[in-house]
Design goal:
It contains 13 helices and twelve strands. By secondary structure, the chain is α+β, with helices and mostly antiparallel strands. Strands 1, 2, 3, 4, 5, 6, 7, 8, 9, 10, 11 and 12 form a twelve-stranded mixed β-sheet that branches. It starts with a helix and ends in a 15-residue tail after the last helix.
């Protein structure tokens, strides 16, 4: 496939020179091996892709949000599909002291804070294709005030745990505050800014209803942030979340009407809320659905509790999912939250194949371009794989790179011959060489011009 023709839809967002540079870099990323750095890209880019050209590309501010959207709308978007908006943070480990935004961030892969860079990404997940497509990426840069506040909060929590428990009852002088009036943290303000820029951009084509976030955002502030942007939140609560059934008994005759009923006992949930029971092997899975209350939330929650029991050992475990949409079916809530994990595959591919873990840029613009380019390549590779996967569903990114690399070798070899082979022989040579390094043996389709 002609990469320049594939990226031609971006000509309205960037100058022609930048578009040519981008096509050279994308072609190099598809064929290169080893670490994805500017020097590595220049070695594989060929004529017109010198190291200085690559430097110029990474040193200019690019409208990545527009590039993501235009490419998605032209090559990926399907009008008859339902999309979810999914957000998550990815951490790329980095060494040194001069990289912009370098800090210590918690990495789930290492299970502890590590030195590196963090990026928050929003993606559109197709409920029919069950795939995630990155649509906006921004670096997480914590200010000095934010770092100090985080440190003070940790110290206060540590001091509270070490001192005696305070007296029961309400502290003297405390006042009532509306739960819906929340002060968003810098993290939520950053995400709100991303939503405020993205939603108007895609409003004419994609109609979004749900924002799906992981358990880190299973709190009242995140719910209010989603509602302020006219989206319903789907997330996960702590396994020991204090949930209450709404009170349905008679009025006591004096005082305010009682709001909270019995507290939820996760080991003894009433059967009237049971919706589905399945047994697979020795594992029994039960799904419970109910509208419940939480004292930290200003509104009722649509809660789905998934319990799993080992029938031989009777060991139990449960997960608590919730949504602000009280009309959402329980099966859809479980399915939508499960689709959230598709964004993790975007991060995996960006790190493994497209340089999110490899880049050595240190300037703010360079870091932004490197991170956005790596996730932009996730969408480009999907488009290149789409036609081939209709005949070979197992066609992977490694197969794509092997095809493109083999085609590149053939083209460079043909240039050295005094006479060009016959088209039939040339195609046979291309197919034979392109199959080298493939994981799934099949006829290749990729070629460059």
């Amino acid at each position: 496939m002609d990469i320049l023709a594939l990226l031609q839809c971006l000509q309205s967002a960037v100058p022609r020179t930048t578009l040519r540079q981008c096509s050279r870099i994308v072609a190099a990323l598809l064929v290169m091996t080893g670490r994805v750095t500017m020097l590595g890209i220049s070695r594989w880019a060929g004529p017109g892709g010198s190291y200085r050209t690559v430097q110029r590309f990474f040193s200019q501010a690019l409208p990545w949000a527009m590039l993501f959207w235009v490419f998605f709308r032209q090559h990926v978007y399907r009008a008859d599909e339902v999309y979810l908006l999914v957000g998550d943070e990815v951490v790329a480990t980095k060494a040194g002291t001069h990289t912009h935004g370098l800090d210590r961030f918690f990495s789930s892969l290492y299970g502890k804070p590590v030195p590196g860079l963090a990026f928050f990404a929003l993606s559109l997940v197709s409920t029919q294709q069950r795939r995630s497509f990155p649509i906006r990426v921004e670096q997480v840069v914590r200010s000095d005030a934010e770092k100090a506040a985080s440190k003070a909060k940790a110290e206060a929590k540590k001091q509270t745990l070490s001192t005696a428990k305070r007296r029961p009852g309400r502290p003297k002088g405390s006042k009532n505050t509306p739960k819906a009036d929340v002060t968003l943290t810098p993290e939520f303000l950053r995400i709100t800014g991303m939503l405020g820029a993205l939603l108007p951009l895609i409003a004419g084509a994609v109609s979004l209803t749900y924002l799906v976030l992981d358990g880190h955002f299973g709190n009242h502030n995140a719910l209010q942030m989603a509602r302020q942007n006219h989206l319903h939140l789907i997330s996960k609560l702590r396994y020991d979340a204090a949930l209450y059934f709404p009170y349905t008994g008679p009025y006591a005759g004096r005082g305010p009407h009682r709001k909270y009923g019995g507290k939820v006992d996760y080991d003894n949930i009433p059967t009237q809320y049971l919706k589905e029971t399945t047994v697979e092997g020795h594992i029994e899975t039960r799904l419970y659905q109910a509208h419940m209350l939480h004292k930290e939330f200003a509104q009722p929650l649509h809660v789905v509790i998934i319990t799993k029991t080992h029938l031989q050992t009777q060991a139990r475990g449960h997960v608590v999912l919730f949504s602000s949409d009280l009309e959402l079916a329980y099966a859809s809530l479980v399915d939508y939250y499960g689709l959230r994990f598709q964004i993790e595959f975007n991060f995996r591919d960006a790190k493994q194949y497209w340089g999110l873990e490899d880049f050595m840029n240190i300037t703010p613009t360079g870091v932004t371009n490197a991170a956005n380019l790596s996730l932009f390549m996730v969408n480009v590779s999907y488009r290149l794989q789409a036609d081939r996967r209709q005949r070979d569903p197992a066609y992977s990114v490694l197969d794509l790179k092997a095809d493109c690399r083999g085609s590149k070798y053939v083209e460079e070899t043909i240039k050295m011959l005094p006479e060009k082979p016959e088209p039939v022989l040339l195609e046979q040579i291309r197919n034979k060489v392109a199959c080298l390094g493939r994981i799934h043996a099949a006829q290749p389709f990729c070629s460059f011009s």
